[in-house]
Structure formats: structure tokens, C-alpha cells
Design a protein that fits this description.
Layout: E1 3-11, H1 21-37, E2 40-47, E3 50-57, H2 59-66, E4 72-81, H3 85-98, E5 103-110, H4 119-134, E6 137-138, E7 145-152, E8 155-164, E9 176-180, H5 186-196, E10 200-207, H6 213-216, H7 219-231, E11 234-240, H8 242-247, H9 256-272, E12 277-281, H10 294-301, E13 308-309, H11 317-327, H12 330-333, H13 341-344, H14 354-363, H15 366-375, E14 378-383, E15 388-393
Parallel strand pairs: 5-6, 5-7, 9-10, 9-12, 10-11, 12-13
Antiparallel strand pairs: 1-3, 1-4, 2-3, 4-8, 7-8, 11-14, 14-15
The protein binds adenosine-5'-triphosphate and magnesium ion (MG).
Length: about 425
């Protein structure tokens, strides 16, 4: 049912970001608008340290969406009343009357200092009126109903049930990362954690099949669709594994995993500038597999000019699975898919020799091999607002360095971000 509703949205850490705060708040507003525009009419404005979101559409859709926007600490559906005592009282009394519980608590915040009653006194007076009008009793520690009253300029907001947001920082505020995406359980969770810290992932997937269609129809893209609920538009680069396979024929089997992983890193690095990414991220968990020992992670990183971020490094598999379930990628990640890793992890060494890998990488001209592979890559973009999935050769990408259409390219003042 189409209805008008208003939400008060409180942001998390972004209130702490000094001079960058307006940039963070602007991206959060943008991300909220983007997420909710898919399900109704939305307007968001800032009012004295919180966001006020007006929405026309199905409330459950709105709430489901807000709960997936990073940067939101909590939100609540609110009633807006004139900023005068009698109107506030009527709303509070009505809420107490319609709630089945017997005890209540009122928390009042007066941010508009021209309102004649202070926060504490307002809560006490409203409490007294609720007791005399409804016969309910006050419980400060464990109330059945907790009512909040925020008195802002020109209006008051009354709300009772708060819902938790996902916390973190608005996607986009920490820039972009080239994210190595396998389609397994880990890499979608790692992408989600990168988003949670404000990064926008550009997904890079190496595929084995002769044409990209198999990858496009696979769980890889299904997972990206799920992740798009949290990030909005998503971009995936599908790079064929074929050239690499031909070039490395005859390489000793125990070097294959490390060598291929080095190749993935070199390719990611070569794509980073094109997409304005300033780091590479992966779904590695320390020592989860032989290819992920500290030594082999070092082999992966060797020579990289970009930081390699591994948000899952210290997670146990069980913890990753729990998160994957929560995010909604777990079931999809179990689907059958023939990926390159099945081939390269036959006989892994737990301590690959750095020099040896670097020698092979040089001898096999990885830089050029990466360029050739990228030349044959496919760009897939998914827009959750329209549900449209587009695939085209990466070579045809007309967009200049790293600007993804529809995204505000806000520069951050790095010096203002508190360490
Ligand atoms: P995952 O669930 O991420 O596949 P995994 O335990 O299968 O985890 P590996 O296959 O060893 O881990 O891969 C470790 C990481 O290497 C992945 O998380 C991902 O970042 C990257 N990776 C692996 N395979 C690919 C691929 N085909 N394309 C892009 N990145 C990959
Ligand atoms: Mg994998």
C-alpha cells in the first residue's frame, strides 16, 4: 500500500569526520535516495545532526532498504508534529494508549533552543501527562514502550521503535578498490566488509570457460546482484584465463597456485587506474589454504605499488559463513561453478619461493600477458534500480579514468580525516 512516512536516520561514525563530515553526509543522503528510489518516492534532508527521510511507498520496502545502507547507525519511523507542547503531548499520549504494554519511558531532546521547555523538563511533563491520561506507569530501566521526542527547528519528531542500520561508512567515502572476486564463499563477504568501510568495489573475476557467457550466467554475477543491494550500481570485469593458461604451459605444478595468484595481482594493478581504484582487495583468510599462508601472501604482494587489503584475514571459516548468510550470498556461493582455482590448487606449496615466482613472472612477461588478457575482457554492469545487466567488451568502455556514471565523484580532504 502506498503511504507517506517519515524516518529519522542517525548516522554512525561519520559524525566524527571533521571537515569531511559534509562530504560523508552528502554521500549518505545520496546512497539513501538511490536505495529507496527503487521502491518509492524519496526525499532526504539533514536537520541538526540527523537525517530526515520522507518516503511515499510501502514501509516494509523502505525499512528493508534503509537497513542495508552503510553509514546508518539506526533509524525509526517518526511522526512529525508542530513544535508546540500540546501537539507533542497528544502524539505521545496516543502512542502510549495504542501500545499494549503497561510501562513507558520518555526521552526528550531539544536541539532548537528557542523552544521554551528544556529537554529534561519536557520529558517529565510529558511523562506526567501520560500517567494521568492513560494510567500507565514509568519504568526508566525496562519500559515496554520507549518514546523519543526530538524538538527541531519548526517541528518535533516522535518515534518509538528504533531499528539498527548496518553501521560503517557510506559506500564511496573511502574510494574504490579493485576486488578479486572468485564466486566462492569468502570473496563476496570480503567485498561487503570493504563496502562497510566506505569502499566501492570494482569486481575482477578470472574465468575459465571459452566465452564470458558462462560466467555472466553463473553464481559470480548472482552474488554481485545480491551485493548491489548494499552498494547500488556494480561493475564487474571478466578476464579470460585462456591466455595465461597457454603462456604458462609447462610451469611446475607446485608453483602454479602462487604464480596464478601473482598474475591476478598484476592484472588487478593494471586495471586499477582505469577504474580510479587505489587499492586491491581479496577474500584471503590467513592460512585457510596453502596459498594463503603468510609466506604466500607475501609472494602475492611482492612488487605491488598498491596496498593489498584483506578484510577477512583473521576470520574463521565459520564466522565467514555466518556473515555470508546474513548478507544473502551464502546459498548462491554453493552453486556449482567451474573456476580456475580448481586447476591451480592441485599441489600447492605452503612456502613458495619469492624469487622463483618473480623470475617466472618476468620470464613470462606478466605485464604484457595481463594487458593482453585485459584486452579480451568483458565489462558487466548491473543497475539494481532498473534490474538491467549489460555486458560489453572492456575495450569499448568510453568512460574516462575511473568515473562511474551516476556516482558523485566527491574528493575527500584526506588531511581532515581523523587518524
Ligand atoms: P573464495 O570464497 O573467495 O573463493 P577460497 O577459500 O575459495 O575463497 P581461494 O580460491 O584460495 O579462496 O582464493 C582466495 C582469494 O583469491 C579469493 O577470495 C579471491 O579474492 C581471489 N580469487 C580466487 N579465485 C579467483 C578468480 N577466479 N577470480 C578473481 N579472484 C579470485
Ligand atoms: Mg575460491
Amino acid at each position: 500500500m502506498k503511504m507517506k512516512s517519515t524516518y529519522v536516520v542517525h548516522y554512525s561514525e561519520i559524525a566524527l569526520k571533521g571537515k569531511n563530515r559534509p562530504v560523508f553526509a552528502r554521500l549518505l543522503r545520496y546512497n539513501l535516495r538511490r536505495a529507496l528510489a527503487q521502491v518509492g518516492k524519496v526525499a532526504v534532508h539533514e536537520s541538526e545532526g540527523r537525517l530526515v527521510l520522507d518516503f511515499e511507498g510501502d514501509e516494509s520496502d523502505a525499512e528493508e532498504r534503509i537497513a542495508k545502507v552503510f553509514g546508518v547507525a539506526w533509524f525509526a519511523r517518526a511522526s512529525i508534529v508542530p513544535s508546540e507542547y500540546d501537539s507533542i503531548r497528544e502524539e505521545v499520549v496516543a502512542r502510549a494508549e495504542s501500545h499494549p504494554g503497561g510501562t513507558f519511558r520518555i526521552t526528550a531532546r531539544r536541539t532548537d533552543k528557542s523552544f521554551p521547555i528544556g529537554s529534561q523538563e519536557l520529558a517529565t511533563r510529558l511523562g506526567g501527562d501520560v500517567v494521568s491520561r492513560t494510567g500507565r506507569t514509568v519504568s526508566l530501566s525496562e519500559p515496554d514502550l520507549a518514546v523519543n521526542v526530538d524538538v527541531l527547528k519548526g517541528m518535533a519528531m516522535v518515534y518509538s521503535s528504533k531499528s539498527r542500520g548496518p553501521g560503517g561508512l557510506p559506500v564511496g567515502t573511502s574510494g574504490r578498490v579493485l576486488h578479486l572476486f572468485s564466486g566462492g564463499i569468502d570473496s563476496p563477504v570480503a567485498a561487503w566488509l570493504m563496502m562497510k568501510r566506505g569502499c566501492r568495489p570494482v569486481y575482477l573475476h578470472f574465468y575459465l570457460a571459452p566465452t564470458p557467457e558462462y560466467a555472466i550466467k553463473s553464481k559470480v554475477i548472482k552474488e554481485v546482484r545480491r551485493l548491489s543491494d548494499y552498494s547500488g550500481k556494480s561493475t564487474v570485469v571478466l578476464v579470460p584465463f585462456a591466455q595465461y593458461q597457454i603462456a604458462t604451459t609447462g610451469v611446475p605444478g607446485d608453483l602454479e597456485p602462487s604464480l596464478f595468484r601473482r598474475f591476478m595481482r598484476v592484472t588487478a594493478e593494471s586495471l586499477a587506474a582505469k577504474f580510479g581504484a587505489s587499492a586491491i582487495s581479496t577474500g584471503d583468510c590467513l592460512a585457510q589454504a596453502a596459498s594463503q599462508t603468510v609466506w604466500n601472501l607475501g609472494v602475492f604482494d611482492e612488487g605491488s605499488s598498491l596496498p593489498i587489503l584483506r578484510p577477512l584475514l583473521a576470520y574463521d571459516k565459520e564466522e565467514v559463513i555466518q556473515l555470508a548468510r546474513k548478507i544473502g550470498t551464502y546459498e548462491v556461493s554453493l552453486e556449482e561453478y567451474k573456476d580456475c582455482c580448481a586447476i591451480v590448487t592441485r599441489h600447492p606449496k605452503t612456502r613458495a619461493k619469492r624469487e622463483l615466482i618473480s623470475q617466472f613472472a618476468e620470464r613470462l612477461a606478466f605485464d604484457q600477458l595481463a594487458r593482453e588478457s585485459v584486452d579480451a575482457a568483458t565489462l558487466v554492469s548491473f543497475d539494481p534500480a532498473t534490474g538491467s545487466l549489460k555486458a560489453s567488451p572492456l575495450k569499448e568502455m568510453g568512460v574516462s579514468a575511473g568515473v562511474i556514471p551516476g556516482e558523485p565523484g566527491e574528493p575527500l580532504h584526506a588531511s581532515n580525516v581523523r587518524q
